[in-house]
Amino acid sequence: MTPAGVTACWSCRGPVTAGDLFCDTCEAIQPPRPVDPFTRLDLEPGFEVAPEHLDRCYFDLQRRLHPDRFATKTSRERAISVALTADINLAYETLQDPVKRAIALLEMQGVTIHAEGCNTMSDPVLLMEAMEQREALAEAETSDQVETIAAVATREKTDCLAELAEAFNTSDLSAADRLTTRLKYLMKFEDELRAARIRFSQTT
Ligand SMILES: [Zn+2]
User: How many angstroms separate the alpha carbon of residue 63 from the centre of ligand 1?
Assistant: First the structure.
């Protein structure tokens, strides 16, 4: 019996596992299979990912799949390398973004995030805070007032990221779920702050 996640190489029928790029037996490139972004990039799953480590894994894989390496291969192998590159780019994008990274981790543990935006935030305290913050920003009359709001939001985001890391480290999935929604809001609010800054820089 073959162990879970092991399939046969399309070329030599040797054993390959889901995240493998190449067959160990014949070295043929393997078509992408649905794997989580951590497996795709050959990283340990976790919320805390050092950007330089992520970059190193990503660029290493990009090098191994560089089109020049497939110039003399069959069209099938070239097509597979293109599909794999797209998958790797997507995994990289996912892991670079803390909200997408958190959602991926939750999904890997069977939790689906449904909340889109803040209108559907199920946490009433969070919803209230968000409304007040938005209201304050809408009423800001000077760029100093915007900067005061921005300073608070930046601190909240730093705290939220630390709490989220802690929630994943301790496998507290309900806290991770709630904090992911909060982080999503805080990052959206950052965009609104950016827009407000542009508005003030144009009028003053
Ligand atoms: Zn093979």
Answer: 21
CATH code at position 47? 1.10.287.110
Residue among 180, 135, 130, 120 nearest 153 (CA): 130
2: CA distance to ligand 1 center in Å? 16
pTM (2 decimals)? Answer: 0.84
- Cα 19 to averaged position of ligand 1 atoms, centre (Å): 14
Tens of pLDDT along 108-149? 998 877 555 444 566 788 888 888 989 999 898 888 999 999
Output the domain CATH number for residue 173: 1.20.1280.20
> Do 87 and 156 have their domain in common?
no
* Residues with a beta carbon under 5 angstroms from ion ligand 1: 9, 11-12, 14, 23, 25-26, 28
Q: How many A from CA of 128 to the centre of ligand 1?
A: 57
Token couple for 197:
């800054």
In a domain, 111, yes or no: no
